[in-house]
Amino acid sequence: MNPFTTRYNPGHFCDREKEIKQLRANIDNGLNTLLHSPRRLGKTALIRHLFHKLEKSRKHETIFVDLFATSGMEDLITILSEKILERYHRKNFFDGIKNVLKGVSTSITIDETGKPELKLQLGESNKKTTLEQLLKYLEARKKQVVVAFDEFQEVVKYPEKAEAILRTAIQPLSRVLFIFSGSSSHLLREMFFSAKRPFYQSAAVMVLDKISPDKYFDFIGSTFKEYSKDAEPEAIGRIMDFTEGYTYYTQFISNLAFYQTEKKLTTDIVTQVISDYLESNKTDYQNLLNLLSENQKRISISVAKEGIVAKPMAIEFITKHKLPSISSVSQAIKTLTNKEILYRANEGYTVYDVFFKRFLQRYY
Ligand SMILES: Nc1ncnc2c1ncn2[C@@H]1O[C@H](COP(=O)(O)OP(=O)(O)OP(=O)(O)O)[C@@H](O)[C@H]1O
Ligand SMILES: [Mg+2]
After folding, report:
1. Domain limits of the chain?
2. Which of 2, 5, 8 to mutate for ligand 1's pocket (most ligand atoms within 8 Å of CB)?
3. What phi and psi values does residue 136 have, to the nearest 5 degrees?
4. What is the pTM of this model?
5. What is the pLDDT of residue 184?
6. Which of 3.40.50.300, 3.30.70.1450, 3.30.43.10, 3.40.1280.10 would CATH assign to domain 17-207?
């Protein structure tokens, strides 16, 4: 078993103690939380970890709803129903449906793995009432329920007035608490920070940062030790330099490095692992790059080479990288940010995907 998984693993989870404490405090204080960060820093895993602890403490019950790839209220309500049925009616799904979805017309298909799949027939008018019914069910549980909506920015794209419907359904609840989570896109920010929107100021905000480098460093070392392997500090340092300490990339490279290590992780092994990874994924990154216009390509490469660019419209950057006019750079930066090729951090623009950045730095 490789301990550096890219799935949540309660046995090998690095730090986040401060964040868990804060989330727990919000729950104790009856506050909903908005949890956001750039991609792949560990929001989903953090919620899973919190839920693991809450369930273990037997004081709370938890429902995790992933809204990734949902396209309307019907999807949201279906997933929420499924999660409630899984949590409370695992033994008798059909009884559960009668209990949880009273009056809703449902059908069930069995998928290839033998798992029942729920389908709800919801008309426009009973979406709202079904949602309220589900939340009332949770509200009536003896233990307090915490619900997480992950990738919550998806609801902005729904054809219904989803924000208003959800806000109206959530507002009267006195016990059920929510964690809304997603990447720090303008969609999510506007939802919670624009005074015109239903979710304005409705949650305590928590911005997830990188795991502290010291703690991550120790975590990697002690995990190797746990499996009777050594890791040279310089080797761990090289992993962290390459990944800039971003969680997903660090887990990923550590996973490969662990696999390649018989007794001792050395810088040579790390260098080799990184080279092999970039080499074998070259074509995919090349294809990604080829989807961009000539202008966007050049700007992405230039930003990658710089690492971070505070002022991409400044004349120094434009002349240094022989880019076209300010207006075309400005347009391309906007498009690249929307496509999430570039990310606008506080200090400036950077290539969003660390591995893509390393690919651009190495081959261009
Ligand atoms: N504290 C941690 N210790 C060990 N591994 C972690 C930790 N946090 C996250 N991970 C791992 O890092 C990877 C990225 O984490 P996760 O998917 O939670 O990020 P995310 O912020 O939800 O990303 P996205 O914005 O793309 O949804 C996952 O493989 C996860 O298992
Ligand atoms: Mg996530």
Report:
1. 17-207, 213-280, 292-363
2. 8
3. -65, -40
4. 0.95
5. 77
6. 3.40.50.300
